[in-house]
Amino acid sequence: MSTIDIQSLTKMYYSIGELSKMLNVNASLLRFWEKEFNLKVSKRNKKGNRLYTVKEIEKISHIYTLVKVNGYTLEGAKKALKSKVKEPVKTDEKTLVIAKLKDIKKRLIQLKS
After folding, report:
1. Staple partner for 43: which of 26, 51, 99, 112, CB 3.0–4.6 Å?
2. pTM score, two decimals?
3. CA 3/CA 25 separation, integer angstroms
């Protein structure tokens, strides 16, 4: 499961194909979430293809985390989004913090001996 690092996004707009690759999901799932969660895509190109802003990608990434990573149902994810409660620390962040703490512990043990 992949999540998007919002700070690493450099373009103003991303296509549905680019977003689906970032999240490793089908474009049809993104269109489905757009309907289910009443997301409005603010920009489309001349062909009518969706162009997502960073803010919209952030919302979709949040939905992805709730549904795919944390295992929420669609109804549960809708309630969580409405409640505006901050989500718990992401699994990847927890793993990173644990790895850093283990490294610090190792260095302290080396200094002690």
Report:
1. 51
2. 0.68
3. 11
